[in-house]
């Protein structure tokens, strides 16, 4: 029900149902369970969509803390949590934390999917954007260049990610 309310834009009702689900899961499954982490993550999503970034970050941090305990070291759900934390920090204007959490996600993405993956390209671009916004254009350019190099390598192997125009544009905008 929470997801239906969320899709309909009724975030208050969605938060109410996610909170009830969390309470039930904490009682029946305990604090250290993947489903409990998912509830914290979902609550973070509701706060994020309400532009309540401090609350979103707190919920995502609880989710990632549990996920790091109960999942294998390089699990994609941990990367997703770091992604959400990075975005919330970016939206909040905390570029240094956005870069920190996005870099943690990037390390996981490389470990999970390899160096030459569209998700790695995207994360390099986002880190570059946060660095550029924070006035660190040289570091931003390094990230945009890395994204472009990966993309060119993928093109040479006949894998065509849809991100090339934005990689190209970001690289030139950082010059």
Unreliable spans: none
Cα Rg:
18 Å
Taken together, the total number of domains comes to 2
Q: Main sheet?
A: none
Query: What's the CATH superfamily of the largest domain, by name?
Result: Tetratricopeptide repeat domain
Per DSSP, what share of the residues sits in E-state strands of 2 or more residues?
A: under 5%
Taken in chain order, the helices and strands follow as HHHHHHHHH
Description:
There is one protein chain. 80% of the residues lie in helices and 0% in strands. With 175 residues, it is mainly alpha-helical. It folds into two domains: 1-94, Tetratricopeptide repeat domain (Serine Threonine Protein Phosphatase 5, Tetratricopeptide repeat, Alpha Horseshoe); 114-175, Methane Monooxygenase Hydroxylase, Chain G, domain 1, CATH 1.20.58.
Secondary-structure blueprint:
Elements: H1 2-7, H2 11-28, H3 34-49, H4 53-70, H5 76-92, H6 95-113, H7 118-133, H8 137-156, H9 164-173
What is this structure, in a nutshell?
The protein is mainly alpha-helical. It contains 9 helices and no strands.
Attribute tags:
Serine Threonine Protein Phosphatase 5, Tetratricopeptide repeat, Methane Monooxygenase Hydroxylase, Chain G, domain 1, 80% helix
